[in-house]
Amino acid sequence: MSLIAENIGFWYEKNNWLFQNVNFELKRGEVVGISGYSGCGKSTFAKVMANYLSPIAGRVVVDNKAFVKGSYQPVQMIYQHPEKALNPKWRMYRSLTESYQPDQEILDRFGIREEWYHRYPVEISGGEMQRFCIVRALAPETKFLIADEMTTMLDAVTQAKIWKELIKICRERNLGLMIISHETELLAKLCDRILSVQEMQCGV
After folding, report:
1. What's the confidence (pLDDT) of residue 203?
2. Which residues are CB-neighbours of 134 under 8 A, at least 6 positions away?
3. Average pLDDT, the chain
4. 33, 48, 163, 179: which has the fewest Cβ within 10 Å?
5. Which residue ranges of the chain lie beneath pLDDT 70?
6. Is residue 110 part of a domain?
C-alpha cells in the first residue's frame, strides 16, 4: 500500500502555482523527509497529501483509491502548533478519545499522565499537548502519518524522546511517515530518504 501524488498542483491565487506537476510516493513502513525553506509550500503540500486541501490539478490516492468522505482518514497529520488542532472547549481526555480509545501502553510510551486528562489545552504545556495529538493520530485505522514541523516548538530532550518513540511505533505498525522540516540534520537522522520541494516540482 502506498500514498501517491499523481501530477498534483496547487495555488491559492489562480494561475499562481505554489507547486505543480508533483509526483510522489510514500510506501508503508517508509520514513521520508520533505525539506525546504520557510514559505516554499511544504505545509501546503502536506495538507494536500493528507486530504485537508484538494489539489487544483492531479490527484492523491491511497492504494490507488481516492479518499472516502465521511469516514476515518487513513492519512493523519500532526501540526507544529498542537493548540490549533485541539478544541479549546474540550478537556484533553475528550480530544484524546474522539476517534478511538488508546490503550495504556501507547499512553505510557508517550508519557501521557492521567492527571492531564481533565485539563483544558490552555492548562498544559505545548509538549504535553503534542503528545496527545500524536497518540490521537495513531488510531488502528491510520496507515500514513504526516508530521509538519511537529517538534519545532519543543525542547531538545522532549524532541528526541518523541521522535524515538514515534519512529519505533511506525516501524512496528508498518506505517508510512512523512516528516516536513527545515532542519536538515533532523531529517538526516530520521529518514530513509529526503526530497526537497524544489526537486518535487521537477516531477521527482
Report:
1. 45
2. 78, 110, 150, 162, 166
3. 92
4. 163
5. 202-204
6. yes
Q: Which helix (H) or strand (E) holds 130?
A: helix 126-137
Q: Is residue 65 part of a domain?
A: no
Can you read off the three cell numbers belonging to residue 167?
519512529
* Cα separation, 163 vs 49, whole angstroms: 21
Helix (H) or strand (E) holding 196: strand 193-196
The pLDDT of residue 202 is 54
Q: How far apart are CA 178 and CA 193, in angstroms?
A: 10
Contacts of range 162-169, beta carbons closer than 8 Å, 24 or more positions apart = 162/110, 162/127, 162/130, 162/131, 162/134, 163/190, 165/109, 165/110, 166/134, 167/31, 169/106, 169/109, 169/138
Report the predicted TM-score, pTM, of the whole model to 2 decimal places: 0.91
Distance in angstroms (rounded) separating the CA atoms of residues 139 and 124 = 23
Cα–Cα distances in angstroms (integers) from residue 76 to residues 50, 169, 174, 185, in the given order: 6, 15, 14, 24
**What are 95's three cell numbers?**
480530544
φ/ψ of residue 194, rounded to 5: -130, 135
- What's the structural domain count of the chain? 1
Cell numbers placing 156: 531538545
Within a domain: 37: yes
Distance CA 20, CA 96 (A): 36
Which has the closest alpha carbon to 146: 129, 164, 161, 133? 133
